[in-house]
Amino acid sequence: MSWRPGLGNDELVSYGIVNYNKLQRSELRTWCKLHKVNYNYIIMIEIQNLTKVYGGETVLDISLLKINKGDGFGLVGNNGAGKTTLFRLILDLIRANSGTVLSNGKDVKTSNEWKYYTGSYLDQRFLIDFLTPEEYFEFLNGIYGLSKGDLEKFYLDFAGFFNDEILGKKKYIRDFSQGNRQKVGIAAALMAKPEVLILDEPFNGLDPSTQIRLKNLLNKLKSDKEITILVSSHDLKHVTEVCDRIAVLEKGAIIHDIKTSQGTLKELEGYFSVS
Amino acid sequence: MVYRFFLRHQWKEMTRSPFWQKNIVLNILLGILVGIMLLYLLVLGLFIDKILMELFPDKDPIMVFNGIIIYYFAFEFFIRFFMQSLPTLNIETYLHLPIKKSAIVHYVSSKSIFAIGNYLSWLVFFPFAFKVIAPAYSVATAWAWAVMMVLLIFSNNFLATYIKRQLANKPSIVGFFGLGLVAFILFDYFGVISLTALSSQVFGLILKNYLFLLPVFVILIFTYSLNCFFLKAKLYPDEIISKKKGKVDSLANIKYLKTLGLTGRFISLDLRLLWRHKRTRSIIFMAPLFLGYGLVFYPNQQLNNGYSFLIFVGIFMTGGMMMNYLNYCFSYESNYFDNILANYRDFEAYIKAKYILAVTVSTISYIITIPYVFFSTDILLINTMTWLYNLGFLSFVLYYFATFTKKRMDLSRGAAFNYQGLGATHWLSMLPAFLLPVLIYVPFNLLGYSRAGLLFIGAIGIAGLLFHKSMLSLVLKQFLKRKHVMAAGFRE
Questions:
Q1: Which of A6, B46, B84, B461 would give a disulfide with A66, using CB separation of 3.0 to 4.6 Å?
Q2: Residue in B274, B338, B406, B492 to test binding to A, most A beta-carbons within 10 Å
Q3: Rg of chain B over CA atoms, in angstroms?
Q4: What is d(CA A27, CA A106) in angstroms, rounded to the nearest whole number?
């Protein structure tokens, strides 16, 4: 399997960037231009020696994982493989037992910066369910420091995705169906035009049309701009359609990390087939 | 028998709810509390004839008691309507199984007989029957009377559940019923019409002829069948659950908060949180309880000799609501705490918003207590000083300790007997903060400078207010330190 590795600290040092961790994003961009390095080759998320233990049982153990800028990174695995745990660690929602998660070169534990370019939706816990969708979006709009115009643009952009089922319903989010709540959450994650998007099981509970809409949306995002997408899914088909790189997680460890190609779906099905 | 399974499932559902399993100490405390309440009722039942004789010395206590009963049942109906939850069964889980619909209907209808409200008044009725009626008539008459009461209690229960099913979305109608009840009591009192006499006569019939149990029994069957028919006609999940029509309030449009920027947004969010959940809303309705404290203590002249106790009263009146809010301000948000951690960038504004809201709540409480000045001007002084202490000191202590909560709270349940999210250690650790002002005051008082002691308590508060920025940054630091532990707890 030929797979283009991302650039880690060592590689960057060989490019002449010594203080990679101290470089601002914009500085890094300038540097890339100057040295004619494809910016996309710089890593977005780097995980080193990350472990998480619950009650004596190691649920996640990743020695090294680099996710490049612009990657569509798919995470597949059975229940309890550690997918959500990994995403939670990347979002600093739980404390790791050891190791670090670097987002754009900065430790997510100590730096607040990742919040400014990371959009996420893991589960219903992300929704403030006693608000109406409009109130929720307006609230987030304020948190993200966006303008009223941005909000209107957002509504326009997502009109198709919402399919007239979300806005203007005069209902609190808690009174919506699960699929529609999921839509609210996914849209909210995309609101601030993030450079990193993290979605846990986004296809779960969505109706077929919305699943297709979501796939198109993610693919469009990828082709339009440099966005790094991290998606987990039980559905191998969906994930191969959206992601250009797929990692298989089993019992907390990444056992396969493959580039998506024609045969990927078959290959994945092979891993998960029950003999 | 399918009922046996229903009962067993319900029992398991109850005993396996995390609430019972986690709080053993609290359960014991609750048990003691309930025990005391039952004891009070029993004592009331044993001595009610003495009380009635004291109040109406020239009347037969049995007559008087029978006269009051009609009001008692009306009142009980009223309480039931608002307090007793509708008996439900997760019928979705059974509807698709080969179980007769009528079995489900009968089970759901009869389930309300297990409500504790049906048994409390037995403690009054039975002692009365055997202590007063039995000697005056016969033991058999006492039995007949007691059985009639029990039948009526259950009829009332079924009537209330039926009406509640019908009118769950229009409590105002029952509110009018309550007003009508008050009007009747007033009419009765002034002798315009006398329901008491009617009640006394009707309920007195049983004392003469046991056959009058029969119509009461018919009433019971009737009210029970009302429930059955209603349920049978609507045995579809979407019809039986009286879902409130999605009404959306306009709390989001408070203009003033919008001028406060990010802090204002957080305050606005918290206001909506408090208003849109049953539990938090019922705390708001409980506010008069805190503010009414003074009425219990101030008229009592003996207490007024020393202020120590009134300082306590002052702290609870001006700070009780604030305390309720601050203790749980994080666990209230347990449902979306992950979102807060992943998306909120400015935790400083987040922490500040909650403080401002707490201060506002305490200040409103203080303003409402100002009229107590009519009892004495000293009370105003005490309340002013304790209010300042609450704003500048107690608030920070509560806020700091709020970060130690890690119990998930389900806000959609009511507040009464819902102690989710509360830990005993939590309360103990905050005790010194309540005792401190009294401890400060006592030495001043012993030296004869009681006013100076009060002013000193206020001064602590003012000092805290002056340094509120550094106090809040302490809270923020603590919050950031604890956020993962809290989030892990809230996720459970």
A1: A6
A2: B338
A3: 27
A4: 14
First vs last C-alpha separation in chain B: 36
- Alpha-carbon distances, residue A166 vs A126, A162, B42, B238, B363 (angstroms): 17, 6, 56, 21, 39
Closest Cα in chain A, distance from residue B268 (Å): 9
How far apart, in whole angstroms, are the C-alpha atoms of residue A8 and residue B347? 31
Helix axes B139-167, B213-233, angle to 10 degrees: 20
Cα separation, A257 vs A248, whole angstroms: 6
* Strands lying side by side in the sheet with A57-68: A57-68, A43-54, A98-103, A106-107
CA A164, A169, A173, A176 torsion: positive or negative? Answer: negative
Closest CB to B276: pick one of A140, A169, A172. A172
- Whether the per-residue pLDDT at B435 is higher than 80: the answer is yes
Q: What are the residues whose beta carbons fall under 8 Å from the beta carbon of A66, sequence distance 6 or more?
A: A5, A6, A7, A8, A43, A45, A46, A47
Measured from the Cβ of residue B474, the count of other Cβ atoms closer than 10 Å reads: 15
**What span, in angstroms and rounded, lies between the C-alpha atoms of B468 and B478?**
15
pLDDT band at B395 (very low <50, low <70, confident <90, very high): very high
What chain A residue is nearest to B344 in terms of C-alpha separation? A143
Chain-chain contact of B339 with A95 (C-beta, under 8 angstroms): no
pLDDT at B425: 60
The lowest-confidence range among A64-73, A170-179, B126-135, B408-417 is B408-417
* CA terminus-to-terminus distance, chain A: 25
What is the C-alpha to C-alpha distance for residues A247 and A260, in angstroms, rounded to an integer?
Answer: 10
pLDDT above 50 for B417: no
SS3 for B454? helix
- Residue B160, classified by CB atoms within 10 Å of its CB into exposed (0-12), middle (13-18) or buried (19+), is buried
What's the pLDDT at B470? 94
Rounded to a whole number, what is the distance in Å from the CA of B335 to chain A's nearest CA? 6
Q: Please state, in angstroms and rounded to a whole number, the distance separating the CA atoms of residues A172 and A128.
A: 9
What is the distance between the alpha carbons of residues B248 and B259, in angstroms, rounded to a whole number? Answer: 23
Rounded to 5°, the CA angle B417-B423-B427 comes to 100
In chain B, which residues have their Cβ closer than 8 Å to the Cβ of A138? 252
Does the interface ipTM go beyond 0.85?
no
Residue of B238, B243, B248, B347 to mutate, testing the A interface (most A Cβ within 10 Å of its Cβ): B248
Q: How confident is the model at residue B477 (pLDDT cuts 50, 70, 90)?
A: very high
- pLDDT tens for residues B346-387? 899 999 999 999 999 999 999 988 888 888 888 899 999 999
Give the torsion through C-alpha atoms of B420, B424, B428, B434, to 10 deg.
Answer: 30
Chain B residues with CB under 8 Å of A139 CB are 265, 269
Contacts 24+ apart (CB under 8 A), B123-128: B123/B38, B123/B41, B123/B42, B123/B44, B123/B45, B124/B41, B124/B42, B124/B44, B124/B45, B124/B48, B125/B45, B125/B149, B125/B150, B126/B45, B127/B42, B127/B45, B127/B46, B127/B48, B128/B45, B128/B48, B128/B49, B128/B65
Max alpha carbon distance in chain A (Å)?
58
> pLDDT for B63-75, tens place per residue?
888 888 888 888 8
Residue A133 pLDDT: 92
Chain A residue with CA closest to B487: the answer is A93
CB atoms within 10 A of CB A215: 16
Q: How far apart are CA B279 and CA B414, in angstroms?
A: 4
The predicted pLDDT at position B290 comes to 73
Rg (CA), chain A: 19
Decide: helix, strand or coil at residue B34.
Answer: helix
The chain A residue lying nearest B342, using CA atoms, is A91
- Is residue B232 pLDDT above 70, yes or no? yes
pLDDT for the residue numbered A80: 85
